[in-house]
């Protein structure tokens, strides 16, 4: 059970339960959440009231959610992606991204305070997600929300931008003057990758659909090539220091590897760790994934002299701080296509999966 001061409405910590016993406090032990009881289509998502709130750990923060960005991972998890890990843990609460207000802090939290507006993202393997009135994140998964952006705008950014950060900054370590190719720059990760590269002083070329061209150019790309109507091989000139492939098809992989300078980094978002674990179980699938990755790494090192990576989003406080700084400066924006109330999460998933919204789909918590 979590204790909340009435004056600021939301305030709760484990440790505060024993200490805050006055008229200004109320207890909450449950909240509203969108729950995934079994894998399936959007219709399996259930809005439940009175969902139990776990106790808050010492380094954790309770966030009263204002907006939650929907990521492709949410829809894939709903359909069963990651079942080797998540099936025994059903029912789950989906959602990685969040923007909202700090409602309570654990006893060792130092950088954030109750009432502060924050945004951030959970790690991909987190079991209790953000599709809820209240989300619980570690202190290092949150940063203050810049006042210049709304909660809806902020919630569209962190998971995608941290994925791009993991690739470009933590893996390829891009630096000023380098050339970066983003294959599939029109989505959230692609747009974040373009903006991170530009902020790092790189020149960016990207492929995207016709309708995304204005968007990727506004994000700072030097050149955008429409993959639906143009021959990428003839249009893509010169070599790149880093290639981020958000699509990860065999043809985009070959294209990306061929276009790298020696010593460059090819990074795909479509690694096979999870799908192999789902097919063969965590142990055998995990071993098969390691072997497959290693084989590709050796192969491309020998054939092209380049490094090959499967990129997985990770929470990264340094990255999140930089992303917040760029957001504050107006240099990190992910367009929002459509918003839905929390109670319409199933419809929001349908719209996201059917590509009926151009831009991020976001749940707004009433
Ligand atoms: N490994 C990880 O940790 C990780 C983390 C985040 C995301 N992902 C994966 O990365 C992918 C992108 O995520 P996201 O959040 O950016 O998704 P998103 O916002 O839904 O964007 C997807 C975009 O991909 C573009 N696209 C599709 N086919 C394309 C092609 N052949 N060539 C160029 N562009 C193409 C489309 O752009 P146009 O509209 O321009 O056609 C679409 O907007 C998803 O598959 C997601 O599951 C992986």
UniProtKB/TrEMBL annotation:
Q: GO molecular function terms here?
A: oxidoreductase activity
Q: Give the matching InterPro entries.
A: ADH-like_N, ER, GroES-like_sf, Lipid_raft_assoc_Zn_ADH, NAD(P)-bd_dom_sf
How is this protein named in the record?
Enoyl reductase (ER) domain-containing protein
Report any Pfam family annotated for this entry: ADH_N
The residue ranges of the Enoyl reductase (ER) domain are 40-363
User: In terms of domain of life, where is this protein from?
Assistant: Eukaryota
């Amino acid at each position: 059970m979590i204790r909340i001061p009435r004056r600021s409405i939301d305030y709760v910590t484990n440790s505060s339960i024993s200490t805050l016993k006055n008229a200004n406090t109320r207890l909450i032990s449950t909240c509203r959440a969108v729950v995934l009881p079994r894998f399936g289509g959007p219709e399996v998502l259930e809005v439940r009231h009175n969902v139990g709130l776990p106790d808050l750990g010492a380094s954790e923060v309770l966030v009263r959610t204002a907006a939650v960005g929907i990521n492709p991972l949410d829809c894939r998890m709903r359909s069963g992606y990651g079942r080797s890990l998540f099936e025994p843990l059903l029912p789950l609460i989906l959602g990685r991204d969040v923007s909202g207000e700090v409602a309570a802090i654990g006893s060792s939290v130092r950088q954030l305070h109750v009432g502060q507006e924050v945004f951030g993202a959970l790690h991909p393997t987190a079991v209790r997600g953000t599709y809820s009135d209240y989300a619980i994140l570690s202190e290092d998964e949150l940063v203050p929300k810049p006042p210049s952006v709304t909660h809806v705008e902020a919630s569209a950014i962190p998971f995608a931008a941290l994925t791009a950060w993991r690739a470009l900054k933590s893996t390829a370590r891009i630096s000023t003057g380098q050339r970066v190719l983003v294959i599939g720059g029109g989505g959230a990760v692609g747009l974040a990758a373009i903006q991170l590269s530009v902020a790092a002083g790189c020149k960016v070329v990207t492929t995207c659909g016709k309708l995304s061209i204005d968007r990727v150019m506004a994000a700072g790309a030097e050149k955008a090539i429409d993959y639906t109507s143009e021959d990428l091989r003839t249009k893509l000139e010169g070599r790149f220091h880093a290639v981020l492939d958000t699509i990860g098809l065999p043809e985009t992989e070959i294209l990306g590897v061929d276009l790298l300078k020696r010593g460059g980094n090819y990074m795909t978002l479509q690694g096979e760790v999870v799908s192999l674990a789902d097919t063969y179980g965590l142990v055998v699938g995990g071993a098969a994934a390691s072997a497959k990755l290693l084989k590709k790494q050796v192969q491309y090192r020998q054939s092209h002299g380049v490094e090959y990576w499967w990129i997985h989003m990770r929470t990264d406080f340094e990255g999140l701080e930089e992303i917040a700084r760029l957001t504050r400066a107006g240099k990190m924006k992910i367009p929002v296509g459509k918003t839905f109330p929390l109670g319409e999460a199933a419809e929001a998933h349908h719209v996201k999966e059917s590509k009926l919204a151009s831009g991020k789909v976001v749940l707004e918590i009433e």
